[in-house]
Amino acid sequence: MLSYQHAFHAGNHADVIKHLSWMGVLNHLKKKNKPFTLFDTHSGAGEYDLGDELASKNKEFESGVVKIASVATTDDLLSEYIALCQSFLAENKYMGSPLLSAMLKRDMDSAHLMELHPGEYEKLCRAINPRKFSACHLHHRDGFEGLKALTPPKPNRGAILIDPPYERIEEYTDVVNAIERVLGRWKQAHIVLWYPLLSARAEKKAEASLVMREQLAELGIPCFKAELEVVENTPDSGMYGSGVFVLNPPWQLDVNVSKAITEIVPYLGDNAHFSLDWVVDDQ
Ligand code: SAM
């Protein structure tokens, strides 16, 4: 079953925490004059037209990027993200994670961008034009299988973004298996995993998500979780926020993400709340 289409959610609060965190990782990797490789296991379409039928159905971007796009800030990570949002919003668009990777990586770096849905893959190919973006490898394949086949990269500096739709409850265990497998071969990979925060209405998935995070913690790798809640967690609220679980976080990513998101929380509504907690401490 591949019915999820990210266009319905493009630019929402979940994209904000995920994309800011991913940019924080890229900024860290770019500090050294050495090449790195990025992996995006669930790329989506790459670029979203906020005026199209799907994005304008629930206009989720209005309670996400639109709310923060004019925040004045001196924070480096946040100002870089806001500047990008502004340039895309000026054309009524929003950028997906693979486009962020393609735009922000340097020519010496490479990116493997995977997407399984045929229609989304076609859009991804249009968004990431190889004539414009060097060393971006587009793959029409299962991201978990692709991660296994393509890692470790040489040289082994790099990062992985895992952003499944969690349509199927099995995806929570697929994530744990994929991360365990990749860390067995590429111990120092920086990994950013996005996950939804779900109310009691989605009890089984909420439980599976918790178990996923507990199993990841048991791997014993330094990791933190950062969560952005936007509405109150009542039994019926559905997805009341989301988080990123970061394994092998780059130095100071926790500080940089906290600073950036704490600044925008007041713009995201009265019930918005951000927290960041180390799950396994960095020794
Ligand atoms: N990461 C994107 C971003 O931030 O712009 C959004 C990705 S969206 C949440 C999840 C995507 O994963 C969907 O486009 C879906 O078609 C794709 N997908 C679902 N199962 C997949 C799999 N096993 N391998 C690769 N892609 C998959």
UniProtKB/TrEMBL annotation:
Residues binding S-adenosyl-L-methionine, per UniProt: 19, 42, 97, 115, 142-143, 163
Keyword terms: Methyltransferase, RNA-binding, rRNA processing, S-adenosyl-L-methionine, Transferase
Q: Its Gene Ontology biological processes?
A: rRNA base methylation
Q: Name one GO cellular component term.
A: cytosol
Q: One GO molecular-function annotation for this sequence?
A: RNA binding
| Pfam families to which the protein is assigned, alphabetical | RsmJ
The UniProt site entry described as Interaction with substrate rRNA is assigned to 4
Q: Which reaction does it catalyse?
A: adenosine(2030) in 23S rRNA + S-adenosyl-L-methionine = N(6)-methyladenosine(2030) in 23S rRNA + S-adenosyl-L-homocysteine + H(+)
The record places the active site at 163 (proton acceptor)
Q: State the EC number(s).
A: 2.1.1.266
> What is stated as this protein's family in its record?
Belongs to the RlmJ family.
Subunit field text: Monomer.
Its annotated function is as follows: Specifically methylates the adenine in position 2030 of 23S rRNA.
Name of protein = Ribosomal RNA large subunit methyltransferase J
Q: Which organism is it from?
A: Alteromonas profundi
